[in-house]
Design goal:
The complex is a heterodimer of chains A (322) and B (278). Chain A has 11 helices and 12 strands. In chain A, 29% of the residues lie in helices and 21% in strands. Chain A is an alpha+beta fold. Chain A has 2 domains: 169 residues, no CATH class; 101 residues, no CATH class. The longest helix of chain A has 20 residues. Chain B has 278 residues and is an alpha/beta fold. Chain B has 2 domains: 82 residues, Elongation Factor Tu (Ef-tu), domain 3 (Beta Barrel), CATH 2.40.30.10; 121 residues, Rossmann fold, CATH 3.40.50.80. Chain B has 6 helices and 15 strands. Chain B is globular, with a radius of gyration of 21 Å. The chains are: A alpha+beta (322), B alpha/beta (278). The interface between A and B is large, with 65 and 47 residues. The site of one iron/sulfur cluster has 12 residues of chain A, from helix 10.
Chain lengths: 322, 278
């Protein structure tokens, strides 16, 4: 269903949500936009390109306790609170759908991720303009057909709101000033970077190209790209023992394929010890391996890896050179 | 109106849903000293692994590591472990009656069904003999499904032999070949590398499947010998080793090309392995 809702009514709505203590929304701090728990809806930033970091870290923590152990038992703790995310951009909602493919694979579900997903409501907000590194249009991640409970389109004086789930319907039913509409929301995104499927397909013939050595020569292997990428979810599993050494926690930590030790084995051998191999692996995983395994790109075109690269490496430019 | 009530209650975790990261305790029923630095730890486990599958074994406070099952049984799992680091050193101290935290079995295992009716050549180098022991025990139970079986084992010296207590049994049922790297006082058997012994045997590739497990360098030279002898790559099956953390295809570390060694492997046909480049 589609409704038009006044901006004032949306503000009231967010007021009530924030009073619940469960609302997480974009906030501008210094010049950076990030997602934070909101106490007062006046804090919310509506006019932003995209957040510096995606909401990935709310679903796959930087450091997550898998279980606690002591001398004779293993205890997992999977209590999670309900959360409402307002203002997630459509591309970042797609990033959750991508992660779902890997982490909610039937029979092999990641219980920690699943619980966080199930206990989260997604109120997405369509962008009004593109950033300089966005290429969501090329990947079809600029809008949503699924993955949201509510989807807001800013139409200037009012919002068009789409409902995408029963829970979304419940919430909308409590809004007083709303009107059903058949209008299509406007679609203001332009001036994006472009990456065609034909160009992506060329990866299949480019594995042995010397472009990877050339383009990776200036890469610092700093992992900035993977850290800020909303679909990069690799992790390490480590133990964090208490001082008595008999009890402690097993935790997982953020890992990056750009770091050398990522493929290191006992005995010292590193499989992808050359920088160009690690560089190539990231791009192939995003645009070929994941496509072959799960049927979609593992990139949502947010451009964060480009924006946050200290060497100004631009993956889209590289792909367009193939 | 408290709007959040519209949500209903928290999503409830299906208590039966498996937590893929959480090990279960299994009791150690036996510890066999194989060599100076290798032990076989037998745990009570009814998971009945396929030959070639592996388990993640925990030492709390240090972490987890993958170990191939060395047995084929519905009651227990033998884990043959060499002391090479913190975790494996700790495992050397495990005693009968204690508990080990394990999860598994994981991985694809050798496609034994597909090999039915074939002659099987089983080649194991060093600790690589442990995972092939599952294949051997599987064939012992399903002997009529397979043709001739040749075993080729290579060790550094007789002091390094694994599963010595099985040798007599295997000699009776299979063609048993063993070699050591360098001459050793009192040893009257074969001396030299496995691939040389293999080439000397002049076995023909006809209707054969090769199961090959060992260190990377040994796999490389053995495949070269096999190719020289007329074997094609689609007859050869190997088990690969990679850095692994989760063991279930989530953490990303063991990816080689579009394959996860932990879940698409660790067993691969050599034809596939050739295309798996970093
Ligand atoms: S952010 Fe840039 S420099 Fe850092 S690892 Fe990624 S590509 Fe290399
Ligand atoms: S690869 Fe780059 S553009 Fe694609 S989702 Fe990750 S950060 Fe965004």
């Amino acid at each position: 269903m589609k409704y038009t809702v006044s901006k004032n009514e949306v503000k009231n709505f967010l007021d009530k949500l924030s009073a619940s203590g469960n609302l997480i929304a974009p906030v501008r701090e210094n010049s950076l936009v990030k997602f934070k728990k909101i106490a007062n809806p006046d804090e919310i930033e509506f006019d932003y390109i995209n957040s510096k970091y995606s909401i990935k870290k709310y679903f796959l923590l930087d450091k997550e306790v898998l279980f606690e152990y002591d001398k004779d038992s293993i205890k997992e703790n999977i209590e999670e609170k309900q959360r409402i995310f307002f203002g997630i951009r459509p591309c970042d909602v797609h990033s959750l759908l991508v992660m779902d493919k890997l982490l909610l694979e039937e029979g092999m579900e990641d219980i920690y991720y699943k619980n966080k997903r199930k206990n989260s409501l997604i109120f997405a907000l369509k962008c009004s303009k593109s950033g300089e590194n966005c290429f969501c249009r090329s990947l079809g991640t600029d809008d949503l057909k699924e993955g949201y409970d509510l989807l807001f389109y800013d139409e200037g004086n009012y919002y068009i709101v789409k409902t995408g789930s029963e829970k979304g319907d419940n919430f909308i039913s409590k809004l007083e000033e709303k009107q059903e509409t058949e209008d299509e929301p406007s679609d203001p995104l332009e001036n994006q970077k472009k990456l065609s499927q034909d160009q992506i397909e060329k990866l299949r013939e480019s594995f042995n190209s010397d472009i990877w050595k050339k383009e990776s020569a200036i890469c610092f292997s700093c992992a900035g790209c993977t850290t800020t990428c909303p679909t990069c979810g690799c992790f390490d599993v480590k133990d964090d023992p208490d001082l008595d050494f008999e009890s402690g926690k097993r935790i997982r930590l953020d890992a990056s394929c750009q770091l050398k030790n990522y493929t290191g084995v006992a005995g010292g051998h590193v499989f992808r010890d050359e920088r160009s191999k690690r560089f190539k692996h990231r791009i192939y995983h995003k645009f070929k391996y994941f496509v072959d395994q799960y049927g979609s790109e593992m990139c949502i075109g947010c451009g964060r890896c480009i924006t946050n690269c200290p060497a100004n490496i631009d993956m889209v430019k590289i792909l367009n050179k193939l | 109106m408290p709007i959040v009530n519209l949500w209903g209650k928290n999503f409830e975790i299906d208590k039966k849903m498996k937590n893929i990261y959480k090990p279960e305790l299994a009791s150690v029923t036996k510890v066999i000293e194989e060599t100076e630095d290798i032990k076989t730890i037998r745990i009570k486990h009814d998971s009945n692994p396929k030959p070639g599958q592996f388990y993640e074994v925990s030492v709390m406070g240090i972490g987890e590591a993958p170990f191939g099952s060395a047995s084929y049984s519905s009651e227990y799992v033998d884990l043959t472990i060499r002391a090479v680091g913190n975790l494996t050193n700790k495992l050397m101290n495990v005693k009968q009656g204690e508990n080990l935290a394990v999860r598994g079995p994981y991985g694809n295992g050798f496609p034994m069904e597909k090999f039915k009716g074939k002659d099987i050549v089983i080649i194991g180098g060093g600790t690589g003999v442990a995972p092939v022991r599952t294949v051997i025990e599987y064939i012992e139970i399903n002997r009529e499904d397979y043709g001739e079986v040749d075993l080729f084992f290579g060790f550094r010296s007789p002091e390094e032999f694994l599963f010595k207590y099985d040798f007599d049994k295997w000699k009776e049922i299979f063609k048993f070949n063993i070699t050591i790297d360098k001459p050793y006082e009192g040893w009257e058997g074969n001396v030299g590398f496995l691939n040389a012994l293999l080439e000397k045997s002049e076995i023909s590739p006809e209707n054969k499947i090769v199961i090959l497990v060992g260190p990377p360098i040994m796999i490389k030279v053995t495949v070269e010998s096999l190719e020289k002898m007329g074997f094609s790559d689609d007859q050869i099956y190997v088990s690969l080793e990679r850095m692994m953390q989760c063991g279930v295809g989530k953490c990303g570390h063991c990816m080689v090309g579009d394959k996860y060694v932990c879940k698409d492997g660790p067993v691969f046909c050599y034809e596939t392995v050739k295309g798996m480049v970093d």
